[in-house]
Design goal:
The complex is a heterodimer of chains A (75) and B (358). Chain A has 75 residues and is mostly helical. Chain A has one domain: Non-ribosomal Peptide Synthetase Peptidyl Carrier Protein, Chain A. Chain A has helices spanning 2-9, 34-48, 63-74. Chain B has helices spanning 39-58, 69-80, 84-99, 111-120, 146-159, 163-178, 197-201, 222-238, 244-254, 326-345, 351-357; strands at 14-20, 26-32, 128-129, 137-143, 184-192, 207-215, 261-262, 267-271, 300-306, 313-320. Classes of the chains: A mainly alpha (75), B alpha+beta (358). The interface between A and B is medium-sized, with 20 and 22 residues.
């Protein structure tokens, strides 16, 4: 799943996929703006066929947290 | 240079001339139809012009080519074709509309809504007519110096708050102040739907607008208010692909609004893109200005953008002259900036305290 997420991330920001880790923060490290990040979450919903709760969005700061949350929705 | 709008067919819908000013400044005058370009497009256009100049003069690299706008349109059409995302967005906005009714807060205070309640004999009326005057308009520009502009930017960086949220907080606090401390305030907020790299580089404007409605009480702190706005904005961003006209129609029908009735007294756009770039020689000096074409569709539209000369903030109020005067806008700008700096200085002060101190 990390590779899938990385491939989506590089549609939004100009970063080398090799520099993206589970600890990478979307806004602080990868340079996402608020709109970029919200749009990214919508793409995640389509890609993984999940529905992200608005109240959980504030807890997703890192790539790892995004992966964990998606997995919890799929379980 | 032009008398009237551009032709809509077989027309480039723009005109570019080189000019030489009496003060020795040589520049480019661009006249363009808003249907084809917005502020971001204009900044990117001039950045490309400067890059080409620097390539020819100093050997700098050319800009990268634009992404395909046709592909972007195809993506939009796929969304519109009853996609899951469209239905999700539609359901979200339907829930927002039906959750509770907003209330109109006029930029000049309670009298407007009060008058209309008396006219319709409806003391509970919440929407108001905010227009009905001619489209003759002008632009009032106010310039915030670079140093205080930097103070605002630093506050945003230190507190994880976007500049647009800070601006919305100042404007809504002003509306709250002049409307008897009404906590429920709505402002039309634009969303430039440019998230992916292709969306950022495909050209075209892709602007949608939705109300940013927030309820901030007098005992909330200024920074809490900013965070409330941030949450509202984030939710809007997640569902911003819905056609805003569909949203406005849904809302109007649900609340049985008469044509022209609204809950928002003005619109706000913040343009973060600046002409200043680290990619070109810093000794190139340039300035830009925005001229009114004499008409406007809305009574009041505030665009906040960075000046090319020194990156300070310009507050550009496009206003209908039948509704507002330049002095009205001076007063509004004065209070908005006072609230901004009072809140930035004391983010843990309550909204009530900020209002009292301004």
């Amino acid at each position: 799943m990390l590779e899938q997420i990385k491939n989506i991330i590089v549609n939004y920001v100009e970063v080398d996929t090799n520099t993206i880790t589970e600890d990478s923060e979307f806004i602080a490290d990868l340079g996402f703006s608020s709109y970029d990040f919200m749009s990214f979450l919508s793409e995640i919903e389509d890609e993984f066929d999940v529905e992200i709760d608005e109240r959980e969005v504030v807890k997703i700061l890192t790539v790892g947290q995004a992966i964990e949350y998606i997995k919890s929705l799929q379980a | 240079m032009v008398n009237g709008p551009f032709e809509r067919f077989d027309s480039p819908m723009n005109k570019v001339v080189m000019i030489s000013m009496p003060d020795g400044f040589k520049g480019i005058y661009l006249l363009v139809d808003h249907m084809t370009m917005d502020a971001q497009s204009i900044v990117l256009f001039f950045k490309d012009v400067i890059t080409i100049y620097c390539h020819k003069m100093y050997g700098y690299d050319y800009s990268k080519l634009l992404a395909s706008y046709i592909e972007q349109l195809e993506k939009d059409l796929k969304y519109e074709a009853n996609s899951k995302a469209l239905n999700r967005d539609r359901a979200y906005w339907k829930e927002v509309i039906e959750s509770s009714k907003p209330i109109y807060t006029d930029i000049q205070g309670k009298p407007r809504l009060q008058e209309q309640r008396e006219e319709t004999s409806n003391p509970n009326q919440c929407a108001a007519m905010n227009d009905g005057v001619s489209n003759v308009a002008d632009i009032a520009q106010f310039h915030l110096e670079p140093e205080p502009s930097d103070v605002l930017a630093k506050f945003c960086a230190d507190n994880n708050v976007s500049m647009v949220c800070l601006l919305l907080m100042a404007i809504r606090t002003y509306l709250q102040k002049v409307n008897d401390n009404q906590p429920d305030v709505s402002i039309q907020s634009t969303c430039a739907r440019r998230a992916t790299l292709n969306e950022k580089k495909c050209g075209g404007s892709r602007i949608h607008f939705f109300p940013c409605r927030t309820i901030v009480n007098l005992d909330n702190t200024f920074i809490e208010g900013c965070k409330i706005i941030q949450e509202s904005q984030n939710n809007m961003f997640r569902h911003a692909n819905l056609n805003p006209i569909e949203y406005m129609t849904m809302r109007g029908q649900y609340y049985k609004n008469a044509p022209g009735q609204t809950y928002e007294p003005l619109s706000l756009t913040y343009q973060p893109l600046s002409m200043r770039s680290s990619d070109v020689p810093q000794e190139i000096n340039y300035k830009s200005n925005w001229y009114s074409n004499g008409v406007a569709a809305q009574p009041l539209y505030l665009t906040v953008m960075h000046r090319s000369l020194d990156n300070g903030l310009d507050f550009c109020f496009e206003y209908k002259k039948g509704k507002y005067t330049y002095e009205d806008l001076q007063s509004i700008y004065y209070f908005i900036t006072r609230i901004l700096f009072e809140g930035v200085k004391n983010p843990n002060a309550t909204v009530g305290e900020v209002i009292s101190n301004t």
